[in-house]
Specification:
With 237 residues, the chain is mainly alpha-helical. Among the domains are: 96 residues, no CATH class; 66 residues, Arc Repressor Mutant, subunit A. It is built from eight helices and three strands; from the N terminus they run αααααααβαββ. The radius of gyration is 58 Å and the shape is rod-shaped. One of its GO terms (biological process) is chromosome segregation. InterPro entries: ScpA. Keywords: Chromosome partition.
């Protein structure tokens, strides 16, 4: 059957009580005055009993041990036995005192209940990636990286080809073109001038050229806007 332990007042056992009495009455733990210690110890036991507290058997056993040491000291020619018993008791008290001190320091170091941990230790870092992934995950990761890089890159040159590389057609060049056609044929269908237009810049320049020629009187446009004719009576300034 497991032995029951009792805590009386603030003392956890007879050795704890003895250390308290030695400290309280400033007794020498290395050369204990057994008579004074026994008197104080029996007084503490009596006080416990007056408070209707059940005194554990180890407290009574320590009282009997102190009585025995005192009895031996009173007998003649038993000085060596007396010193041996006192040294044994002092050794137990010193050992118990050291254990209490260590327990107190551990309690102060405790930060999480009953778990005691050491300080973090530096660990070597292994930079080798050892995890295994299915090919599908690797393909998705690769595509995601390409997508992010693509968003950070500037637009390609082809995105500006319609603006930067657009051919610029001057109005004067289209005026010469219209006049050459009219010198070959004095009259042309208006829409025939736009049939071979390659881009919008050329069409706009051709239309502006017709307006400029009509404004200067070098060509005439029919009332239905279908025919354009060279004005042979126009005189150059």
């Amino acid at each position: 059957m497991e032995k029951l332990l009792f805590k009386l007042q603030e003392f956890e056992g007879p050795l704890d009580l003895l250390l308290h009495l030695i400290a309280k009455h400033k007794l020498n733990i290395y050369d204990i005055e057994i008579s004074a210690l026994l008197e104080q110890y029996l007084g503490a036991i009596e006080q416990m009993q007056r408070q209707d507290m059940e005194v554990a058997s180890e407290f009574l056993e320590m009282a009997a041990r102190l009585v025995h040491i005192k009895t031996v000291s009173l007998l003649p020619r038993h000085e060596e036995e007396q010193e041996e018993l006192k040294r044994e008791l002092s050794g137990q008290l010193l050992e118990y005192q050291a254990v209490k001190e260590i327990a107190r320091e551990l309690f102060l170091q405790n930060r999480s209940g009953d778990i005691f941990v050491r300080a973090p230790q530096p660990l070597p870092v292994d930079m080798l990636y050892t995890r295994s992934h299915p090919p599908v995950d690797l393909q998705k990761a690769y595509d995601a990286v390409l997508g992010k890089l693509g968003r950070k890159l500037p637009p390609p040159v082809t995105a500006f080809s319609g603006i930067v590389h657009r051919r610029v057609v001057s109005v004067s060049s289209r005026i010469l073109f219209i006049l050459r056609r009219l010198y070959e044929k004095s009259s042309l269908r208006f829409h025939s001038l736009f049939e071979r237009g390659e881009d919008r810049s050329e069409l706009v320049a051709t239309f502006l050229g017709v307006l400029e020629l009509a404004k200067s009187g070098r060509v005439r446009i029919s009332d239905d806007n279908e025919q354009i004719t060279l004005n042979t009576t126009h005189k150059r300034r």
